[in-house]
UniProtKB/TrEMBL annotation:
Transmembrane segments: none annotated. It comes from the Bacteria. InterPro entries: Glyas_Bleomycin-R_OHBP_Dase, Glyoxalase-like_dom. It comes from Corynebacterium glyciniphilum AJ 3170. Residues 11-162 form the Glyoxalase-like domain. This is Glyoxalase-like domain-containing protein.
Amino acid sequence: MPGHHEHPYSFDHLIHIVDDLEAAMTSYDNLGLPTHAALSMPGFRNAAWGIDDARYIELAVIDDWDAASGSIYGETLSVMRPTIEASTTPGLASFAVHVPDAPATAALFRDAGYQVTVCDIRFDDQVDGQDAGFTEVFVTDAPAWFPFFISYSPPREVIAQLRTDHRVTQGGDSEPPSERGPDLVSLLAYSHTPSHDARVLSELLRCELRGTTVALPGAQVHFEHSPSPDTTPGLYGFSVRRAGLTESPAFVAGAMATSAITQE
């Protein structure tokens, strides 16, 4: 991910809630966005399109909220449940922004007057000699388009390098898939006040504002005026390049995928 580390905040992953995980994976694959299965636990399963060695789109299905609440991800899912249930399913629920220090980020938002919940997830194993896990920060009184924040143990750049090394040992390329293959360019969000929301997000993330587009490294966030007063504000799609979409826009499990016109 060249250049993504130069800014303290960068795109980490997008959460796409689906009804049928296998069908959603097939739809992504057919768009040229290759997926792989990930976790399976009571009440919850997911998969992902691994954009590169750090960024990804998560496809998730929640079959049983009560069962899922007892898993290692139970606290996180409980915090996200209102957002997920308020969004259109299937569809895009939220996105994560990577930060170097999630607890410090939580303190910044608390100082700014926001209500914040911190979820600390730790696994039983170690990676690169460090306890494996991640910390997520949710701003619970923010609007629907607002991201949550995440930092990893070991740090994300270490995890990304381990993935690169593994791919090379398997005979793969040292370059991440997004260097020559499909790449995520933008997240697309509806808003009743796109100029205002874009400005607020750009200030909070300390990113450049280009019209109603927030230049978040890893995936910019583009706000558009809601097509009607009844349209729920929030994420509705994403744009990609080098995906070979035969139609643009295309629809995949309730989300819109478009070909990006942005050039490298």
